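Example 3.2
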Amino acid sequence: MLLRSFIVLWLCGFVQFAQATQLCVQDDLNQPVCVKQAQRVLVLAPHLTEIVDFVGGLDRVIAVDGSSNFPAAVNSLPKLPNPWVLGAESILARKPDLVLVWQSGISADVVMQLRKAGMPVFVSEPKTVAQVATTMQRIALLLGTQSTAYPKVDQWLARFEQLSNRFKGRAVVPVFYQVWRQPLMTLGGQHVVSEVIGLCGGRNVFSDLTNLAAQVSVEGVLKRNPAVLLSSGSLEDHRALLKQWAPWPELAAVQRGHVYTVPNDLLVRNGPRLIDAAEQVCDYIEQARGQ
């Protein structure tokens, strides 16, 4: 309840004003985004496509980026090239009345050009569960679907609270999250994955790193000796992860068989399916805690 109350108070800071003809919110760059009520939405990031669907606005979407693949209905929509290669002209040519973009996935110059042309652009960069929730709420406001979307967001946050309450006070389990094998990459303490691990009563062994992502060494992982090795990917990726770490049986996670892979896109997209990933992560951490 405290988390949800905080979200409501925080959202008030994002809503600038509402009139009969126009509504404005702030995006994650603290820039105002104003629309009457978006009817032709261009979505250029997978997590934003999933959020638009979650808040009930997929019928307003005219095109998505090529990486958007959930829900299945998006596969019938036009798909655009990688946003990094899209120019402002090609975006404007589709005549959207709202463009949703990921800050890390598009050129800042393109965003600036779109805004100079008078195009409403919502720039998203959520890094916490709370920020994902406010993103859902702000996009729902822009789409005019808040009456049905807000209760869904409340239910979504309640599932996180349930996880937090369930594992509060439990023995802390050290966890290593692997982003990439070559070079060996992990996530720091400011990433939402680290927050999810913490909700489960785990501890990201590299939570002291200030960068969202960082290169680490095998020796560094061995020194911190995680009880769980975690990554995202397919069944084939999971087999590769097991093979990768098999040469180090002294590692607690390897020795006890706690090497896990969350299905692709669940944990690394900061959208509504993050809670499904969190529940899986908590199950994995609880299995390790049992030993």
